[in-house]
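queue> pop job 88
queue> type: inverse folding (structure -> sequence)
queue> payload:
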């Protein structure tokens, strides 16, 4: 009998109180959990590794013996210039910034050799872009400024990076 009175007393306590306020913490918890799930899902989709393999095509150029000339050939301004010319020539559907991220021009081991590398998900396109960059270097972009010869064509050195 005492238990029944306690239950009635407890239920009488809630009669004068708006019970919808007490359901709100559960609703807020549900909103927080839903928001976390959405954020985690978006993060997973965005950060998910690309299933496509990445290929790199490289061409090696021999660029005279002059240190200043080699440095100028590989500096950021020259690389940006070749990217702009390559972008105009190929009429690709990506931005010049994304194209620049695919191209790397570097001096090899303090020698007079310069490697032009292009990374892409399509090995043929990577080789074509590397060969086009070499041709642009040879035929006009730096033709007056530099004397150099192509040591290897890009098509020869296509390797899978992933």
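queue> result:
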């Amino acid at each position: 009998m005492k238990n029944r009175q306690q239950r009635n007393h407890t239920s009488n306590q809630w009669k004068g109180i708006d019970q919808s306020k007490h359901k709100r913490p559960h609703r807020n918890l549900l909103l927080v959990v839903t928001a976390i799930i959405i954020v985690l899902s978006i993060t997973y989709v965005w950060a998910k590794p690309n299933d496509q393999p990445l290929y790199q095509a490289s061409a090696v150029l021999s660029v005279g013996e002059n240190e200043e000339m080699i440095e100028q050939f590989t500096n950021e301004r020259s690389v940006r210039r070749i990217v702009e010319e390559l972008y105009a020539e190929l009429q690709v559907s990506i931005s010049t910034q994304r194209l620049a991220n695919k191209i790397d021009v570097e001096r090899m081991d303090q020698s007079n050799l310069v490697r032009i590398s292009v990374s892409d998900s399509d090995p043929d396109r990577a080789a074509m872009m590397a060969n086009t960059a070499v041709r642009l270097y040879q035929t006009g972009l730096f033709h007056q400024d530099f004397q150099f010869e192509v040591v290897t064509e890009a098509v020869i050195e296509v390797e899978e990076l992933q």
